[in-house]
Write a structure and sequence with these properties.
Protein name: Pilus assembly protein TadE
Strand content: 15-25%
Largest sheet: 3 strands, antiparallel
Strand order of the largest sheet: 1-2-3
Keywords: Membrane, Transmembrane, Transmembrane helix
Structural class: alpha+beta
Pfam families: TadE
InterPro entries: TadE-like_dom (IPR012495)
Length: 174
């Protein structure tokens, strides 16, 4: 027998201790590598539920931010429309504030701080009313676990003042 054609002998071990002694060289490493057959399937089986939970967690947080953004855009639009149909700049500012707050409240968006700024331009017929709504959204109630932090979202909407609207009667004919 020549040493180049016969495989090296593996040590005899007890049945429970297969591949306990790794021989140096190429064949020894191959035996060690084969001893891990099937371990990847077990690792994936254990890790998969945690990966799925992480993806669901991230998805819920992203959805929460996108939903809040859409609701704030809608509140800005409603506030600008409410301000554009008022007769005085003071009433327009008050209408924009109350409309934005009620729109966000009815949509289920809770703001840590709500800011509504209104630019009326004197409410001249043919002019525009611009309303910016800023809301600090807290992500803490997104899941049972809670998410630290939040984000300030803002939206601006511009509405035209009706060109053919009537004006306040000041006692003189116009």
């Amino acid at each position: 027998m020549s040493s180049g054609t016969t495989p090296p002998r593996t040590p005899v071990t007890s049945p429970g201790r297969r591949h306990s002694r790794v021989r140096p060289g190429r064949r020894g490493w191959a035996a060690w590598w084969r001893a891990d057959d099937g371990s990847v399937a077990a690792e994936v089986t254990i890790a998969a539920p945690f990966l799925v939970m992480l993806l669901v967690f991230v998805g819920v947080v992203i959805h929460r931010g996108v939903d809040a953004r859409i609701r704030i855009d809608d509140a800005a639009h409603q506030a600008a429309r409410a301000a554009s149909i008022e007769r005085t700049p003071t009433a327009a500012t008050a209408a924009a504030q109350s409309t934005a707050a009620s729109a966000l409240s009815s949509a289920g968006v809770t703001c840590a701080s709500l800011s509504v700024s209104t630019s009326t331009g004197g409410l001249r017929p043919g002019g525009t009313v611009s309303v910016t709504v800023s809301c600090a959204v807290d992500f803490g109630d997104a899941l049972i676990l809670g998410v630290p932090g939040g984000k300030t979202l803002s939206a601006t909407s511009v509405e035209p003042v009706d060109l053919w609207r009537s004006t306040l009667n000041t006692g003189s004919q116009t």
